[in-house]
Amino acid sequence: MSTPAPLQTAAALRAAGRHPVLPLRVQLADGRSLTVHRLLRVLPGKRLVGEAEFEGRRVLAKLFIAPASARHWQRERSGIEALAAAAALPTPALLAAAPLENGGHALLTAFLDGADSLAARWEAEAAEAAGSVRALAVLAPAFTLLGRLHARGLVQDDLHLGNFLVHGGHLLVIDGDAVRALRPGRPLDAAQAAANFAILAAQLPAAWDAHLPRLVEAWHSADDALPALDVPALRARIAATRSARLQAFLGKVLRDCTLFRVEQRLDRFSAVVRDQAEALAPLLTDPDRALAAGQLLKDGGTCTVARTEIAGQALVIKRYNIKNAGHALSRAWRPSRAAHSWVAGHRLAFLGIATPAPLALVEERLGPLRRRAWLVNAWCPGRNLLEHLAPHVDRAPPAAEAEALRQLFATLHRERISHGDLKASNLLWHEGRIVVIDLDALRQHRSAAAHARAWRRDRARLLRNWPAGSALHRWLDAELPAA
Questions:
Q1: Torsions phi, psi of 32, nearest 5?
Q2: Residue 342 has pLDDT above 60, yes or no
Q3: Which of 200, 225, 247, 473 meets the CB 3.0–4.6 Å disulfide criterion with 466?
Q4: Is the dihedral of CA 298, 303, 309, 315 positive or negative?
Q5: CA pair distance 50, 286, nearest whole angstrom
């Protein structure tokens, strides 16, 4: 018979940070204990979520370990009870909610073996043309379930596709911590419903805004008592919510959080996608060594670029050089070009614009002064458009490339993004998409006038890649959005 894991206290779990030793066992204040075998999420010093065993049953355990955890624990408990009882809405059953021995709290719900998050299904099955039958089939049930919440006077303030689970052919809503009763037992009014609807709709690519009436129809099908929604006003609210989400996300890419590991010293700053941190540790320690060992792609005065492979993953390392003392002085007080490209890459990825995944950033520093910097991206093996479209100079591009060009430039224009160096060699054709690279000068403009000026320069730069009288040049000039 195996020896039970030693009991842990909330204080010990706080001290363990992101890496508590498994299995871990905690004791409830009533004397019962539970053992966590697998961690699913860790908020250091605040909360652990994992698969656990409790009284011979598999459960999903949320351990609230912060000193002032009672408020969050009680709020989640109340939200689950509101979903399950007052609203009669599908959510994992609450099995236990109790204080821990020696501080902290536990909340245990049924473990749904084989459940998929709706986010995973969206990525696997519906990351295709907006409004398609297949994509709508994935999304519509979530908006209908949201309508059921609203019909019973509830809102969910952390709406995203990951907070919906598919289990046994049924859709469930989770995360009771974000559930609030605004009008218990009565439908929300139009303003309340629109504000909450916008949170979920803002998770989708902006191309879905054109199909908003279909999502509103799915939402309204939940209950005839739901109010009518003003679709144009809803579009504006979704755009504002999406913009706020983008800014909140970009605020994380240079600080230590769940998604990114950031380390800062007097002489060095580094940021890395957290799930890549272990694999990229040798590179982060000595980026120049990895650069020298790679296949040199460019060796210029301002930057050196090489392709390398680490842990079976093909990467591109770009070092931003310092040319001379004057250049060093001009760059010292500004964010490095590597940092600008790091943020720009995450901006594009968030907006659904294909770009090689930005994986790590390293800066040499002397206190607040910046010196050299390195950017590490995933390698994209695609051909640049200058080469790929060379056989089509005297005719329109093939149908797939034509549609990809339209979609890319419509998205860039809608989001007020300028590239700054939009030559065809900075656009790669890969797996049916156009991948944007070299983001050193990329900007997202607040001002429509500033964007129009930058857009005209981008547009002209791209068109200069092909003879003015060629069919391809004429096609691009006709199809690309005007300023």
A1: -75, 155
A2: yes
A3: 473
A4: negative
A5: 35
Q: How far apart (Å, rounded) are the C-alpha atoms in residues 350 and 161?
A: 15
Q: What is the predicted pLDDT for the residue at 427?
A: 98
- φ/ψ region of 111 (left if φ > 0, alpha if ψ in -120 to 50, else beta) reads beta
Q: From residue 417, how far is each of 186, 386, 394 by CA, in Å? A: 43, 22, 29
For residue 4, whether the previous peptide bond is cis, meaning omega lies within 30 degrees of 0, is no
Residue 271: predicted pLDDT = 97
d(CA 48, CA 44): 8
∠ CA 238-402-482, nearest 5°, is 60
Domain 116-250 and domain 384-479 have a common topology: yes
- Determine the residue type at 187: P
Whole-number Å distance between alpha carbons of 307 and 297: 7
Structure tokens at 170: 């049924």
Look-up of token digits 């955890």? 69
Amino acid at 238: I
- Is the domain 384-479 a CATH 1.10.357 member? no
- At the top level of CATH, which class does the domain 10-110 belong to? alpha beta
Q: 260-378 has which CATH code?
A: 3.30.200
| Strand ranges, E, within 312-405 | 313-320, 358-366, 369-378, 383-384
Strand 170-173, strand 164-167: pairing: antiparallel
Please work out, in degrees rounded to the nearest 5, the angle formed at the alpha carbon of residue 65 by the alpha carbons of 19 and 161.
75
Distance between CA atoms of 131 and 250, rounded to whole angstroms?
A: 28
Residues 6+ apart with CB under 8 A from 1: none
Q: How far apart are the first and last CA of the chain?
A: 74
Give residue limits of the domains in the chain.
10-110, 116-250, 260-378, 384-479
pLDDT value at residue 35: 96
> Residue 323: is its pLDDT beyond 80?
no
Residue 311's pLDDT is: 87
Q: What is d(CA 295, CA 315) in angstroms, rounded to the nearest whole number?
A: 10
Is residue 324's pLDDT more than 60? no
Pairwise CA distance, residues 434 & 382, whole Å: 9
Strand 33-43: give its sheet, edge to edge. Answer: 24-27, 33-43, 47-54, 57-64, 105-110, 94-99
CATH code for the domain defined by 116-250: 1.10.510
3-state secondary structure 237-277: HHHHHHHHHHHHHHCCCCCCCCCEEEEECCCEEEEEEHHHH
pLDDT higher than 90, residue 463? yes
